[in-house]
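Worked example 3 (structure in, sequence out).
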């Protein structure tokens, strides 16, 4: 980011992702796994309790799995992690501040602004016209009314 803003001081970067994921739905997976494995119950006995921020492992058929390692060998799985955008924004600010402080050769380092916000807030702030275009007759807009578990990190240079 530092190099980008040094070379393109009018640019901004936006990162968007899930900030929360539901726990895996293992009900459908149990019967599928049991049919495919004789020893599947022992896999469940070895699993740890779920923790905050655990990944969600889901295959292309919509089945969730407790772990990538216990998914069927032929299953194509996505491993989804929730992102802590508040911490990511703090990290971006602190990492950039340490570069500014250690910059002893006199090179110009551009100060940054980093903020985390819900996707809905980001869209209403930067694209209300586009959100309006997606509204149906009921006022529902998929851009702001769906995906309440998504957030955005916006990073941009700011005037010193």
């Amino acid at each position: 980011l530092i190099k980008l803003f040094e070379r393109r001081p009018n640019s901004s970067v936006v990162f968007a992702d899930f900030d929360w994921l539901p726990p895996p739905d293992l009900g459908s997976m149990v019967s599928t796994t049991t049919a495919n494995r004789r020893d599947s119950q022992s896999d469940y006995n070895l699993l740890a309790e779920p923790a905050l921020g655990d990944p969600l492992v889901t295959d292309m058929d919509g089945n969730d799995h407790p772990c990538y390692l216990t998914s069927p060998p032929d299953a194509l799985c996505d491993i989804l992690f929730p992102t802590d955008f508040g911490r990511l924004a703090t990290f971006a600010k602190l990492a950039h501040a340490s570069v500014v402080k250690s910059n002893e050769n006199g090179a110009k380092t551009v100060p940054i602004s980093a903020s985390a916000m819900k996707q809905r807030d980001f869209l209403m702030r930067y694209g209300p016209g586009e959100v309006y275009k997606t509204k149906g007759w009921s006022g529902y807009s998929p851009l702001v009314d769906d995906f309440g578990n998504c957030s955005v990190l916006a990073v941009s240079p700011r005037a010193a």
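Notes: The first strand starts at residue 13 and ends at 18. The mean pLDDT is 82.
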